From TrEMBL:
Keywords: Cytoplasm, Phosphotransferase system. The keyword Magnesium does not apply. This is HPr family phosphocarrier protein. It holds the Pfam family PTS-HPr. CDD domains: PTS-HPr_like (cd00367). It comes from the Bacteria.
Amino acid sequence: MIERELVITNKLGLHARATAKLVQVLAPYRCNATLTAKGREVNAKSIMGVMLLAAGQGTPVVLRVEGEDAEAAAEAVGALFERRFDEDS
């Protein structure tokens, strides 16, 4: 199991477009992935689950991935967060 602490830095937080990108990034991986924020844990591969976090800019989240390609999935999600979901230019 891999656990990474991330902070949402894009202006709009985990809104619909950012959430869709997150789910798309994780889709090809066979691992299980969860996001935890504000005391809630959700399936990171579920658009509805991630939207329920209502995580805005500055919110710390914990990504937990488990399975055969967990390291690659964690790297891909980390890169997406670093790029601010490709929203800020």
